[in-house]
Amino acid sequence: MLRKKALLLIVIIAAFILMTYQGKKGTIGSLTSLNALLQTAQHAVSSVTDSLSRPFRTMALREEDNTRLRKRVDQLLLEQSANQEATLENKRLKDLLKLRDTHRNYITAARVISRGIGHWEHTLVLDKGLKDGIVRDMTVMTPLGLAGKITSVSESYATMLWISDINFSAAVRTREGRHEAVLSGTGSRLCLLKYMPYEEEVKPGDVVITSGFDAFFPPGIPVGYVSKIDTRGIGGNFQYIEITPFQDAAKLEEVIIVR
Q1: Would you kindly state where each structural domain of the chain is located, as residue ranges?
Q2: What is the CATH number of domain 110-258?
Q3: Is the CB of residue 73 less than 8 Å from the CB of residue 67?
Q4: Considering only 5-14, 99-108, 224-233, which range has the smallest mean pLDDT?
């Protein structure tokens, strides 16, 4: 369309020039001169349209290049993400291997494949079961500390109860003061340290470990730290103490099971 308009403009100008020239000099002497003039006009039209369309062609080429570059960048980002994920997984597995070497009662390592859907129920499903040597009430750990215990087992899968589940409890003690108590889940991120007498000195930041007195969990496993102590307006003979577990259930991916 642009080329046709430019050609029409050149033809009109050429006709005007011819009329002016004819008025002054008489009839054009040769058809060859007219053809030459028309060819010159056509060449001028081609030059004009080429000049006008060249920036648009350049823009189209640049857009194609940009599209290719964006696809390449996306591909590189995906590769980088995969490499980072593999690096993090290798680190977690190395930590599990170190933990395995420190426990003589090690059974197997397992991966978390699903989570419980109840609001108060904190359970996770593992990809190992009876065929891997797992049985009910075995201890579940991570390099950070106690994670829970096995509550049910099938041939290829096992269900573990997370330490913050309301049905979970374990015999524990403070590592610094050696004060014994019972850890119970609350259904939230935190746990409670129950049956700690007022006369026992417990401070925020104190570490809680398993005592082994419940015959379920091996002694000395880190559980969490004291995050809150409140004795104001609380009746009874025991302190109110909140424990934040070292291992966050939301970030749990691999575990080890010990006897």
Answers
A1: 1-102, 110-258
A2: 2.40.10.340
A3: no
A4: 5-14
Positive or negative, the CA dihedral 248, 169, 194, 201 is: negative
Beta bridge partners of 226: 243
**What is the DSSP code (8-state) at residue 121?**
-
Distance (Å, rounded) from C-alpha 197 to C-alpha 240?
10
Is beta strand 145-153 parallel, antiparallel or unpaired with respect to 139-142? antiparallel
Residue with tokens 């823009």: 59
Mean pLDDT of the residues in the chain:
79
C-alpha distances (whole Å) from 132 to each of 49, 129, 153, 154, 158 are: 78, 5, 11, 10, 10
Average pLDDT in the 42-71 region?
Answer: 70
Q: Which region holds residue 76: left if phi is over 0, alpha if psi is between -120 and 50, else beta?
A: alpha
Q: How far apart are CA 178 and CA 184, in angstroms?
A: 18
- Given its phi and psi angles, is residue 148 left (phi above 0), alpha (psi -120 to 50 degrees) or beta? left
The rounded distance, in Å, linking the Cα atoms of 129 and 135 is: 8
Between CA 217 and CA 211 the distance in angstroms is 8
Q: What is the pLDDT of residues 128-185, one digit of tens each?
A: 999 999 999 999 999 899 999 999 999 999 999 999 999 999 999 999 899 999 999 9
The average pLDDT across 25-36 equals 53
Per residue in 221-244, pLDDT tens? Answer: 999 999 999 876 455 788 999 999
Joined tokens for residue 8: 């029409």
Residue 169 CA, distance from chain mean position: 32
Residue 80 and residue 110: Cα distance in Å, rounded?
26
